[in-house]
Amino acid sequence: MGLKSTVKKVVGPEQWNRIRSVRQSYGEFKERYVTLPREAYRQMKRYRKYYSRPSGTAAEQIQARLIFHTHQIEKGLSHTQFRYGFGKNTLKEEAQYLKAYMRAVPNYRNTMPYQSAIAALHEYYERHEPEHKEAVEYAQSLFPAEVWKEVVEGAYSNGGSLVITANSKQNNRSATFSQIVDSRHSIREYANQPVTLDELMPALQMAVRTPSVCNRQPVRVHVVTDPVQIKQALKVQGGFNGYPMPPMLLLITADCRDFLNSMERNEGFTDAGLFAMSLMYALEAEGLAACPLNTMFNRAMEETTRSILSIPDYENLALYISVGHFPESVKTCVSERHEVTDIITVH
């Protein structure tokens, strides 16, 4: 007879069940108040050590900030209501990190971040020259002469803005998956017509087939169509400034009650990300335009958002997706991607 069976026989069933209950309570207490804080702290330390802070000197950190500011320039170039002379602070930051990137990466001219930055700056130059020389002169003053020469010459084309037409999306339902992936872009300006729940449902029906941890399906979708709520929510979010409000806004969340232990504390964001990408491809297949928007909020922003949209405390905010119909023609960011060989490590 094993030790467990012997103890159970000696103390009796009633006392044994009490022992089990105490053990379970202790285990739960340890999980909630020891293991979870410890693991969250360990994760925080890693992030704090490596994230791309302004003073970061690693090539990857500099690259992240260069790509970020290039994207800000691309967004400015994509506005239908184009504002001449936009982005002075962004251009200054772009110049700072471009020069740092050139110092950190020996073969910088052969990389996507450098080429995309030059291409976006070339479009900025072309949109302002010759009528708005003061904007061109300001931009030119920020960059080394050899860089500005490449900007003026338009040495690269993999950055800036591009035009998307509604006509190009008419046959999306019959397109292959690879065609959907290759042609999808984030669209921030939409046709002046509502998106109905009936139009949204086919895409949601496809998205619910997304895998999740042990099929627990923690993702929740809050569909916002009230223009006042959309405006309030996006004002807090801050990434849609300068664009007309979308006719529909989706908030993707993850229900914490579907997870079992501290090791799964981040799983909701993983499952929500998988779901959101399935949904965006499904929206594209249904001929609807969309753009993901982050919900990386501080406490005040999160609390305000929860109040505006009545989001329960047990749901973690993962991201927004703005949704609308494609306008006849619209500009969007090129958003050039890395080569596959730049992101893989074969073990």
TrEMBL record:
Give the SUPFAM superfamilies listed for this entry. Answer: FMN-dependent nitroreductase-like
- MF (Gene Ontology): oxidoreductase activity
Q: Where is the Nitroreductase domain?
A: 182-233, 257-325
Checking InterPro entries in the record gives:
Nitroreductase, Nitroreductase-like, Nitroreductase/BluB
Question: Which portions of this protein are annotated as coiled-coil regions?
Answer: none
| Entry keyword set | Flavoprotein, FMN, Oxidoreductase
Highest taxon in the source lineage: Bacteria
Q: Give the protein's recorded name.
A: Nitroreductase
